[in-house]
Amino acid sequence: MKRRVAILGSTGSIGTQALDVIAQHPDLFEVELLTANNSKDLLIEQAVRFNANTVVIGNKDLYKEVSEALNPHMIKVFAGNDSISEILEYSTNIDIVVASMVGFSGLKPTLAAIRSGKTIALANKETLVAAGEIVTGQAKRHNSFIIPVDSEHSAIFQSLQGERAEIEKILLTASGGPFLDATVEQMAAATKEIALKHPRWNMGAKVTIDSASMMNKGLEMIEARWLFDVDPSKIQMVIHPQSIIHSMVQFTDGSIIGQLGVPDMRIPIQYALSYPYRIPLNVDRLDLFKVATFTFREPDMEKFPCIKIAYESIARGGNIPCIMNAANEVAVAAFLRDKIKFTDIPSVIERTIGKSNFIAKPTIEDIFESDKEGRIFAKEFVNLD
Fold it and tell me: What is the band of 102 on the pLDDT scale with cuts at 50, 70, 90?
């Protein structure tokens, strides 16, 4: 029986690669729902090609055009992000949801899918950063299984299969991004074009800038804390420039198990879609003789202060990680619009956290309010309209 798939953010980097995986296995998967915010032409093309049952265009101004294009194909069209949550919560025709919307916007629809007991292929790390305790609690309550899609968390997840031993340490690998060997002065002068040139991965703009600042690794540390119920003190970041070992787990007997592969997101995407089975995938194979050498470094928290901010935020807990995430999203957007320097990003985050109200035990309503408040304060600091 085919698995019926919903892809939230189908026109983005993860979404398009998920569809490539599905295209390789038409006998195993079928597309039930596709969503996009503004990329109407690609959404229309995807919906027709994969014979989607339903699409949602987030921008309501584009509804008429998308609807007129897809009506002849008998594809249902809805508009607005609230429609995504409603469809996910009440549809009985979706087996697995690829949650790949960018940023905090992915939280509400992911929670809706969880409430209906659907399996979540989670590519949106901000969902767990902002509301990890609430999301994992809801998943347990509604028997919703969360499978990580991020390459690092997929590697950890795969390393834990069949293991009953206690985790001693998670070794969370990082490429180091485009500024691994840059000076602080070079980073301060960096343009967005330079920051967007990732040495290993092909990703969207926001996550690429997060990788450059290493906030991405901070977000992933918090995500790992909730996914694997591990104290942050047991999550160690390791710079691995080759991006071949995608992360590792050290157990209490001293053994370390990791997952290796070429840096191609289709591998963890397919693993999440096909779990618990492994199926063939048309991607490059890892040639260890060409790689020849693996190198590792400790991250420089003075050079990359976003790492320290993330550890401090999860240590304080409550709504602080949510505020941190909101401020980071605003700061990254400001940098991409040439409003601030690259090295201003951590300062914006710290100032926003300092100005925001702390809530030790936030409800989901508190999380949404904290996100809103954090964005207001951060926009003041970057003069962003």
Answer: confident
